[in-house]
Amino acid sequence: MKQKLINLQSSEYEHPFDKAALERLRSLKGFDTVVNFVLNWTTIKWRIVELCGSNFHVTKESCPELYSLVHESAEVLNLDRLPQIYTQWSYNVNAYTTGYRNDTILVFYTGAVDLMTDEELTFIASHELGHIRSGHVLYHVMGQVFANIIASSVLAGSLLEPIQIALQYWNRMSEFTADRAGLLSCQNLDAALSATMKMAGIPKRYFNTTDPHVFAKQAEEFMTQYGDTANTIIRNISILDDSHPWTVMRAYELIKWVESGEYQRILDAHQGKQCPMCGQYIEFDAAICPVCGYKFE
Ligand SMILES: [Zn+2]
Ligand SMILES: [Zn+2]
Asked: What residue ranges do the domains of the chain occupy?
């Protein structure tokens, strides 16, 4: 069992690029109107129903292993509202979260479940829970809705374009925050890096023989050579499909965060103390264990 992060707040680890891009997005003229429009749009509800009617529902009974992996990750991250969990047939090594409020749905592609170790899958699951924790899911859904509107109507497309560009840019930046949540929950940088390396496309036959540190080296070299160009691309190209999740850049940002000492500082700050009776981690100043009632001296 991983160390639970007692009283962890998402604002403590949200990436500054994510925060700045979201602030800019929210300040755009017409943004609130657009958010309300999307929330009332029945297509989202249809999309949720369609997803539920097409994919495999992971429950305590149907798939106890995956169910408890997600639940344990949520507990470590101190997330109280859990999503519904589904799997979807695709050999894409990834997952996504969609829906809204009580209808928030976390979908794993079968490729992620089949090709990842438990530790790596914990990173992927917690990355998604990180999106939920930071309230990202609604804006991600907006991006999907806009892409459809822009593709089908030139007029609507031209009106929505400034928001869509800011939204796409923020979308990329939000990945850095979610990766931090992933690492805080899986608590294993090598697993986070190897999960990212698998998303980047390493062939299955090399899974067991490739050291995740070679990917760290690639990330370092990439940022030295192309860091500025990569930032320009992300800033200026409005629609980048999900086949380009910028995994190398994300690995680089994660490594830098660990090297800065912030990751360890957060783990230490939210450690709490362990109950000697039931093993539960609880708040430092608790006098009684809320789980088993053990009284501390
Ligand atoms: Zn993500
Ligand atoms: Zn206890």
From this structure: 10-260
